[in-house]
Design goal:
Layout (H helix, E strand, L loop, with lengths): L24 H12 L7 H9 L18
InterPro entries: Ribosomal_eL30-like_sf (IPR029064)
Protein name: RNA methyltransferase
Length: about 70
């Protein structure tokens, strides 16, 4: 993916991850997904399919979070 800026977040208090904290599946499905089209895709396969379908990610886990070494 070109044109993306990589920023590592190591602190759960970082404001860039605030919207992910305490987000339950129910809250996501009932409030955020219908209104904003927001969903979580965590596996490499699902992320790849979303990107191939033209979805623009808000953020992506790094390779270590995906179970791979960077």
């Amino acid at each position: 993916m070109t044109g993306w800026q990589v920023e590592r977040v190591d602190d759960p208090d970082d404001p860039r991850v605030r919207e992910y904290l305490h987000l339950t599946d129910m809250a996501l499905r009932t409030r955020r997904e219908p209104a904003e089209g927001l969903y979580l895709a965590e596996s490499a396969k699902v992320i790849r399919r979303a990107l191939e379908a033209g979805h623009r990610p808000r953020s992506l886990p790094d390779g270590a979070a995906m179970g791979r070494r960077a």
